[in-house]
Amino acid sequence: MVPRKIPKNILVTGGAGFIGSHLCKRLLDDGNHVICVDNFFTGSKQNILPLIQNTRFELIRHDIAFPLHLEVDQIYNLACPASPIHYQQNPVKTIKMGTVGVLNMLGLAKRCNARILQASTSEVYGDPKEHPQKESYWGHVNPIGLRSCYDEGKRVSESLMMAYHQQNKTDVKIVRIFNTYGPNMAINDGRVISNFIVQALRGEPITIYGDGSQSRSFCYVSDLIEGLILMMNTDHFIGPVNLGNPNETRVVELAKKIIAMIHSSSKVILQPLPQDDPSKRCPDIALAKEKLGWEPRIGLDEGLQKTIDYFKAILESS
Ligand code: NAD
Ligand code: UDP
Fold first, then answer.
1. What are the chain's domains?
2. Which residue, 68, 180, 229, 262, is most buried by CB atoms nearer than 10 A?
């Protein structure tokens, strides 16, 4: 007889955001109880509207800079603005997410004996000198630049996870997420794929920062969710592990592709490259393959089409 899976009580901080909302849905679909905690800084009720009717779903409006008292088995700590325009809006608050917010969630994990997964980022590699980036690379981050509130915040969040693990035996997991995209990104998110799609659908100029020669590697959200869940439920491996799609694309190629897919009349305009914008980024995912048996399945064309369909529907209904 196949043993019945026991549902878990799972906390998702940042659960009303882009990645968090997909994660909450998937965890509910798997039969778990999900508590979504969000302060709605960049997340939205719209993202979790389809989940509200589910009796195994609870929503708490809360800022994780303040302690939280709950009983849970697992914590996915995603709460943190992720788009440069949003995390630079209140840099002190962004640093608090990587420090005080993570400490609060680690305290909760310690008290409940819960397993905690920290959403870290490829930004811990900064503007990398090693390419593609392996987990063993220590990075090249400007500690006082515009992006440092986020990059250094995430780096210290990894240190905190390791310190709690070493000192208190807290059951921790660290995942370094590379550029991820898909439905439920906010229209005003400001990251490149949502910007280009929304601009192309509206027939507005496509804003390339710099000359567009910089590269990123884009992972569709369902692939990332699979990786997060595999990592959370793997024993004897703390990470950090890279989760991302190793298929690298230049920003200028991305713009051309999106314009062609939408048959848009939009023209490209060049705008100044923001300070410390990494010139390239691509994950080495050998460790994720070895430890989790994970690799992305959705290619860029397929993922972009799903995302275009999503934004088309949103723009038509607004
Ligand atoms: P997002 O901005 O859509 O989601 C973040 C969520 O956290 C939002 O719902 C926001 O309201 C919430 N939040 C922010 N501050 C909070 C606070 N103080 N208390 C409670 N909730 C708070 O971003 P996302 O793309 O879904 O990113 C989710 C996580 O994944 C972040 O930690 C981000 O750093 C990480 N990440 C994302 C990417 C990516 O490409 N999407 C890449 C690397 C890392
Ligand atoms: N970018 C761009 N136009 C935009 C938004 C972003 O050219 O409208 C560029 C940005 O400068 C960066 C890349 O696209 O080189 C990815 O930016 P994003 O903000 O999506 O993510 P990150 O820089 O954090 O990887």
1. 9-317 (3.40.50.720)
2. 180
